[in-house]
Amino acid sequence: MTLPLKLKRGLKANLPSAALAGEPLFTTDTHELFVGTGESVVPIAASDPTLAERVGELEMHRSTVTNTYSEEFDTLTYVDSEKTTAGIVGGRVTTTVTPDFTEDFSTGNYFDEVNSLGVTVDTINRLIRNSNGIKYGIFYSKPVSIPSTNKVTINAVVNEPSAYAFSEATRFSYPGSIFSQPMGFTDRTNRTWKVALVNGTGIYAKVTNPDGSLSFEGTILPFMGTTHTLPFQSIDYVVDYNNRVWFSLSNLSLGGIVGAVNSDGSTFKDWYTVYSGQGTVLATSLTVDNLNRIWLFHSVSTYTRLHVFNSDGSLVKDQTNILTSGTTTYLRSFYDPIRNQVAVAVRNGNYFKVFLFNSSFVIVRETNINIVSGIESSLDMVHDSNLDKYIAIQTIFTNATTPNTIKLYSINPETLTQTTSVSNINANWASRLVADGPNYHFVYSSNVELNKYYLATFKASDLSIIDTSLTISTFAGKHFPFKDSNGILRTLSLTTRYDPNQAIDEYTFGASKATVTLEVTNNNGLEWLYARPGEEITFSSPASSLILRARLDSPTTNLSPEIYGYRIVTGTLTGEVIQEFVSTKLPSVSPIAHASLTANQTLQEGSINWYLSNDGGATWESAVLGRKHSFKNPLFADLRVKAVITSSSGSVKSPAISGYTITSSNLLLTPAKTGTNLTATMSADQTLTSPDTFTRINFNTVTYDALQEFDKNQSRFVAKAPGDYLIVGSARIKSPTTSPNGLHLEVRINGELHKVLSSIVSYSNHAWCLNGSSIVRLQPGDYVELFGHSFVANGVVEALPTYSYFQIKQLW
Question: How many Cβ atoms are within 10 Å of 767's Cβ, its own excluded?
Answer without folding.
Answer: 15
